[in-house]
Design goal:
The chain has 683 residues and is an alpha/beta fold. The protein has twelve helices and 36 strands. The protein has five domains: 99 residues, no CATH class; 168 residues, von Willebrand factor, type A domain (Rossmann fold); 98 residues, Immunoglobulin-like (Sandwich), CATH 2.60.40.10; 203 residues, Rossmann fold (3-Layer(aba) Sandwich); 62 residues.
Length: 683
């Protein structure tokens, strides 16, 4: 027990007053003489005993009445050993309400968020009119960084709504600590109302700050049931109009009951085009597939929908893709090679490719900046200036194809190959050989052949360079000759693929350019150069979006616009390795469809979804939280467990201790009443 005003304890000295009166009774008695005092003595003895008992009881009642009155003025409080009782006037109270999507779950009293708001109001009402309140949610808005009066705090609580923002408990408490630390008020309290979701409620990682007391108010749902679309992806990185596409998606059942019959609907450009049925066991996931024809060229917006209750924010997954993509190919021909050759015939006939062709005597290096694939076709020498640009192109992640010439300067080539981590060229072998083996372990030809048999007709080679591998070269062979020499292989350099043919691709050295294998080989080189573009991003985060940079529009900032026109932001942009990186800086808060616009030209379609972190509804129970508090020896953290009724009394007990002054006033009146009863009825 503690006292708010311990100085009043000096008044306990007043207890001596009735004691003194009792010891020094100044009342005078009159003597009366009787002839026979036998019976009178007996009566006198009996009356004297009763009188003494009454006086002692009256004395005790008076002393206790005075003592209780003094203790009432001291304002005794029952509290735990960590509670600091002060008489500092107004208090600073910070209340955190978890308004994340997981709080949409329900129990028998209703949605958890509404219960949290009701309990927050009870906390506010438990304090005085002069106290100051901070109401904070996951949104971390500017209005959360100020104190409110009691009435205004209740109004702010009424305005709290569900939000896509996700905050760790440690980040929330840090923000509350920093805000209260700047307050001039002495007494400071923190209350956190949440469902204690394990993905965000990192209680074990918070700083043990004993200066401010934290009270946790945890809310529990009836059941943990939630099904949602987690992600989606295409089988191939290239989507084109008129081609059949296979879209995969993952359905997660985060609940304790099986989903026997479920359906997912696929919408593309506001039309339902496919449906997939599924069944998912409890606490597991299932992959589903949609097959459809892409009928629209260019920008396509789609979504996958399921039905689930009560958590609905994650029932629809948005995605976007562009079915009109060009692969920019830069072809550098040797000075003895014609400009019209097998490569120009291959790439100019397909609208998928955008070909730029140059002679080694007149190279436009600026075309390297916008190219995806660079082909060095039978150059006699790799000059230092050319290699400097090739290395820059490789650093940006472009794919490089090197085809040596019969008259190659081997010294210059090998110097360049050492920089590109390729095996050295040794000598030209004039043996007539056949391509004998396709390395099926390599994923390069994945999906090209239905099956590979021993009778497959492969190209012939009459001249090829022997390659010398060194220990520091990680070169993967793809096509081998009959004598086990490498015909075609690939090396990884940073983010770039560097492909090497050991044979000049002309009719004098091989019939490869006339063979059916030529087209899929160079198509695969181009397809592998395409960077995987995410189909969607998450809202309320600093998303980094990478697009090709157009140097001619360097002064025009790109915009990210919502398709329905409700939002238009100018993101932070940086040019890194000739790619334009856009940083959303948490400016996109609503899911749906967006587009990147620059100078009224559409650069990229975008889709945003709510983060699936809140979809995991596993929460800590009170016993787990108690264990964490004990293990971490948190002296400043309390836990309110009983939320069935009004928690005002628990809040007061936790904030100030249990006030006992009313009890002592009642005891004072009780002892005075006992004294009166003794004097009146005990004669």
């Amino acid at each position: 027990m503690m006292f708010v005003y311990p100085a009043f304890l000096w008044a306990l000295a007043a207890v001596t007053i009735p004691i003194i009166i009792h010891l020094f009774n100044f009342r005078r008695y009159k003597k009366v003489y009787f002839t026979n005092v036998k019976f009178l003595k007996e009566l006198q003895h009996q009356s004297k005993s009763k009188s003494r008992l009454r006086e002692i009881l009256v004395l005790i009642a008076r002393c206790l009445a005075i003592a209780c009155l003094v203790l009432a003025f001291c304002q005794p409080i029952l509290s735990d050993k960590n509670t600091v009782v002060t008489n500092s006037g107004a208090k600073a109270i910070s209340i955190y309400i978890d308004n994340s999507f997981s709080m949409e779950n329900v129990n028998k009293q209703g949605p958890l968020l509404e219960i949290a708001k009701a309990k927050a109001k009870e906390i506010v009402k438990a304090f005085g009119n002069g106290d100051k309140f901070q109401i904070i949610t996951n949104d971390f808005e500017g209005k959360h960084q100020r104190f409110n009066s009691k009435e205004d705090a209740i109004n702010v609580i009424d305005e709290v709504k569900s939000s896509s923002a996700i905050r760790l408990l440690s980040d929330v408490l840090k923000r509350q600590y920093e805000f209260l630390s700047s307050a001039s008020l002495t007494t400071k309290k923190i209350y956190a109302l949440s469902d204690a979701q394990q993905t965000t409620f990192n209680l074990s990682e918070i700083k043990n700050d004993t200066a401010i007391k934290v009270t946790l108010v945890t809310l529990k749902a009836n059941e943990i049931n939630n099904a949602y679309i987690d992600s989606c992806w295409f089988e191939t990185p290239l989507q084109q109009k008129g081609f059949i596409q296979k879209l995969h998606a993952t359905v997660v059942n985060f609940g304790n009951t099986n989903i026997e019959i479920g359906s997912a609907k696929l919408f593309l450009n506001q039309q339902q085009i496919a449906i997939a049925s599924f069944s998912v066991e409890a606490n597991s996931k299932k992959e589903i597939q949609f097959t459809f024809e892409c009928k629209q060229e260019g920008v396509n917006y789609g979504s996958i929908k399921i039905e689930d209750f009560p958590i609905t924010f994650d029932d629809e997954f948005y995605f976007a893709f562009n079915s009109k993509i060009n692969v920019a190919v830069c072809l550098i021909n040797g000075k003895d090679q014609p400009l019209d050759n097998s490569f120009t015939s291959l790439y100019k006939t397909d609208s998928l490719f955008k070909l730029s062709s140059y002679s080694e005597l007149a190279i436009d290096y600026s075309s390297f900046k916008t190219a995806d694939v660079l082909i060095l076709n039978q150059l006699q020498e790799l000059s230092s200036g050319l290699m400097a640009e090739v290395l820059k192109f490789s650093d940006r992640g472009g794919s490089i194809v090197i085809i040596p010439s019969q008259n190659s300067n081997l010294v210059a080539y090998n110097q360049a190959f050492s920089m590109l981590q390729l095996p050295n060229l040794i000598s030209l072998d004039s043996s007539t050989l056949k391509i004998d083996k396709i390395e099926l372990a390599s994923k390069f030809y994945a999906g090209v052949f239905e099956k590979v048999t021993d009778r497959i007709n492969l190209p012939m080679v009459t001249k090829h360079f022997k390659l010398l591998k060194t220990t520091n070269v990680d070169f993967e062979s793809i096509l081998l000759l009959q004598n086990a020499d490498i015909f075609f292989g690939v090396s990884k350099r940073n983010l770039s693929n560097v492909y090497l043919f050991s044979t000049p691709l002309n009719e004098k050295c091989t019939n490869f350019t006339k063979h059916a294998l030529f087209v899929p080989t160079f198509y695969q080189i181009c397809f592998s150069s395409l960077k995987s573009v995410p189909l969607s991003y998450y809202v309320s985060s600093n998303v980094v979006i990478s697009i090709k940079n157009n140097a001619t529009l360097a002064d025009v900032p790109p915009h990210i616009k919502q398709v329905n026109g409700l939002l238009d932001v100018i993101p932070e942009s940086r040019v890194i390795n000739n790619a334009l990186s856009l940083y959303t800086q948490h400016q996109i808060n609503l899911p749906g469809f967006y587009k990147v616009i620059r100078n009224d030209s559409l650069l990229l379609p975008l889709a945003f979804n709510y983060s699936r972190m809140e979809s995991n509804l596993v929460c800590y129970d009170n016993s787990q939280l108690k264990t964490i508090i004990e293990d971490k020896n948190f002296k400043n953290i309390d836990l309110i467990e009983d939320l069935s009724g009004d928690i005002t009394s628990q809040i007061l007990l936790g904030a100030e201790g249990k006030k006992l002054w009313k009890l002592f006033i009642i005891l004072t009146l009780l002892f005075i009443g006992i004294e009166i009863a003794l004097l009146r009825f005990l004669k």
